[in-house]
From TrEMBL:
Free-text function comment from the UniProt entry: Catalyzes an early step in the biosynthesis of tetrapyrroles. Binds two molecules of 5-aminolevulinate per subunit, each at a distinct site, and catalyzes their condensation to form porphobilinogen.
A molecular-function term among this protein's GO annotations: porphobilinogen synthase activity
Protein name: Delta-aminolevulinic acid dehydratase
Keyword tags: Heme biosynthesis, Lyase, Porphyrin biosynthesis
Organism classification: Bacteria, Bacillati, Bacillota, Bacilli, Bacillales
Catalyzed chemical reaction(s): 2 5-aminolevulinate = porphobilinogen + 2 H2O + H(+)
Species whose genome carries this gene: Marinicrinis lubricantis
Family note: Belongs to the ALAD family.
Amino acid sequence: MNFPIQRHRRLRSSAAIRRMVREHTVSTDDLIYPIFVTFGTNVKEEIPSMPGVYHFSLDRLEEEIKEVQALGLPSVLLFGVPEHKDGVGTSAFEENGIVQQATRKIKEWAPELLVIADTCLCQFTDHGHCGVVQECGHGEAVIMNDASLEYLVKTAVAQAKAGADIIAPSNMMDGFVQAIRKGLDEAGFEHTPIMSYAVKYASAFYGPFRDAAHSTPQFGDRKTYQMDPANVREALREAESDIAEGADILMVKPGLAYIDVLSQLKQKYNLPMATYNVSAEYAMVKAAAEKGWIDEQAVVMETMVSFKRAGADMILTYHAKDVARWLKG
Ligand code: PBG
């Protein structure tokens, strides 16, 4: 009788032994929960393509924050949906902008909860681009890099002044980390970390988010600033420049389709890594679960541990509250 020399099944034979040899685990500590805040009163409105995710007006936000806290989640990421939009995104950086107001409230209700502010202009500009735009004739327009930085810095500083614990710029202009770092330092926020959306692809997986944030570009697309899905060496260059410019945490976005990029960054650089399990990834799971085609909890937990295995230290996900609940048992 020829016995197999290696029997991998020995270490899989019971739940206890599988638990003992398990290489990666998901913890509530890993999760960041995105929240959409909006103007008006008594608004708690479900986003049609993102079941279970809502727009909250400030007077309805406290209940959500209390729930997030009770579940033991360490942090939230804030997106603002403003009342007024203009060419430069003024409501992103005014003192009473929706994100600044929400941040002050949250720090009052839940001082230990980390507030991460998404720093971008696209929800706040009337054209829906992440920077400012210049017409260049023939109906063509370009997204101006260096002119945009000024407004992004103003936004980051306004967010920090309101009490944001971490600044998360998602605009993909060149030099944004350096500009924001300098702006924060000059304003006395040298201890506020920057979580850079270092590697952000021009992705169709943001579709439901753009409905939720009302941030679809009114002309053109984001391909001149967000990355081409076909590229990975370019992702390493993006990461390198953000590290050199002073980023504290690097993010890869979207999550699932770019998990190889996350893995490469993790192996190459020693900064903490975040990944964004984006809106369409969430919507697809929700839609299939609603039809009874998948086991939602099993699919979501497998996705989360896959992000950990690929190298994520942090996962931004709309499933965060459910995952925290499931982990509690
Ligand atoms: C803003 C921003 C976007 C997302 C996060 N920040 C959209 C975009 O770039 O169009 C997407 C998040 C998601 O899809 O869940 N720049």
